Amino acid sequence: MDAKEALFWSIALPGFGQLLNGKWFKGAVFVALEFLVNVQANFNLAIIASFQGNIDLAIQQIDFQWLMFYPCLYFFAMWDAFKDAGGGKKRYSFLPFVFSAYFVTVGLIFSTKLRIFGVLIGPVWLPMLSVIPGVLVGLLLQGILKRRSFT
Fold first, then answer.
1. Are residues 17 and 10 in contact, defined by beta-carbon separation less than 8 angstroms?
2. What is the DSSP string of 76-94?
3. Are 71 and 104 a contacting pair, CB within 8 Å?
4. Beta bridge mates, 116
5. DSSP-based helix, strand, coil % in the chain, nearest 5
6. CA 15, CA 2: separation in Å to the nearest integer?
7. How many folded domains does the chain comprise?
8. The 3-state secondary structure of 6-44, one letter per residue
9. Residue 22 φ then ψ, to 5°
10. At what angle do helices 24-41 and 70-84 cross, to 10 degrees?
11. What is the pLDDT along the chain (151 residues), one digit of tens a residue?
């Protein structure tokens, strides 16, 4: 199994990368947790409303208490699938995943207040956009730590 393939399947649905890696129990747990959090948070309804441009409805539909679990579950499942498929051999390879989870969580926290050019971005788009700085900060920190010797 190629590490990037496992990562992309895990992006499609947390747990799929683990199933492709032959980690049946772990994959089943991630899939079950994804469905639990997704349904309890009303996430699919908010995604539909957001894609239709109805951000206010998306905010009303979301259960933020449940959705706050999603970023860590999602990015941990991606990192775990990537690592199990042999992709975590580089030192500090986990950092882009960790910082993405952190930035997406912060994006979710501010998703009902932050406006960009006067437009409310909402609980789907702002967290998705927050992946970009999360990955960049993680890669930057990874590069800095690799260059330094902490032994």
1. yes
2. HHHHHHHHHTTGGGSTTTT
3. yes
4. 119
5. 75, 5, 25
6. 16
7. 1
8. HHHHHHHCCCHHHHHCCCHHHHHHHHHHHHHHHHHHCHH
9. 80, 10
10. 160
11. 698 999 999 999 999 999 999 999 999 999 999 999 999 999 999 999 999 999 999 999 999 999 999 999 999 999 999 999 998 788 899 999 999 999 999 999 999 998 888 888 999 999 999 999 999 999 999 999 988 866 5
Q: What pLDDT, on the 0 to 100 scale, is given for residue 96?
A: 95
Both tokens of 1, joined, read 């199994």
DSSP state for residue 148 in the 8-state scheme: S
pTM for this one? 0.90
Contacts of 98 (CB under 8 A, 6+ apart): 75, 79, 138
Distance CA 151, CA 137 (A): 23
Residues contacting residue 89 through CB under 8 Å, at least 6 positions apart: none
Residue 45: HSE in the Cβ half-sphere, 13 Å Cα cutoff: 14
Is 103:137 a contact under the CB 8 Å cutoff?
yes
Structural domain boundaries enclosing 90: 3-147
What residue has token string 């639990």? 36
